[in-house]
Amino acid sequence: MLPKFHFLHGLLISLILFPLFKGHILIFLAATVLIDFDHYLIYAVKKKDLSLENAYIFLKKLEEKQKNPGFKGRYTFFLCVFHTFEFLLILSIFAFFNKFLFFIFLGFIFHLSLDIISTKWEFKNKYFFYYLKTLFLAYHLLSRDKETFGKIKVKL
Ligand SMILES: [Zn+2]
What's this model's pTM, rounded to 2 decimal places? Predict the structure, then answer.
């Protein structure tokens, strides 16, 4: 799901929850969008390219290509650390003790839920099951497929 859609959904929920959480809801709203910074991080590290625009174009093209029902090649998913269940589990522990982290945690959970729902909704091919696996940090750490963790070999 694109950042602008995450922002719009986050904004809607923020407006609904504003009477309950007041100014703190801005932390939630920022977190719903900024979680995707991990996509940029992995791109910058692997491609040794700091261009935000290049990262956006590359990752968008890769996703569109793999989501195509006619796609025949091997799927490539890079480690996006904030989008992993293990990371969120650890964050949830810290969130228990800190209000700021609590709203970041809520934003991240909301974002990831939208990612999962929209992927399931749009794509009925096996892409979805590969996608779910990659939400585990363990998948990337244990995978011998260095395309997900090491160097980028993908040609677009
Ligand atoms: Zn995302």
Answer: 0.85
Q: Which domain holds residue 62?
A: 3-68+75-142
Q: Which residues surround ligand 1, an ion (CB under 5 A)?
A: 36, 115
Q: What is the pLDDT of residues 77-112, one digit of tens each?
A: 888 999 999 999 999 999 999 999 999 999 999 999
Instruction: Report how far ligand 1's centroid is from the alpha carbon of 80 (Å).
Output: 9
Q: Is 59 exposed, middle or buried (0-12, 13-18, 19+ CB in 10 A)?
A: middle
Number of domains in the chain: 1
Beta-carbon neighbour count of residue 68 at 10 Å? 12
Residue 101 lies in a domain: yes
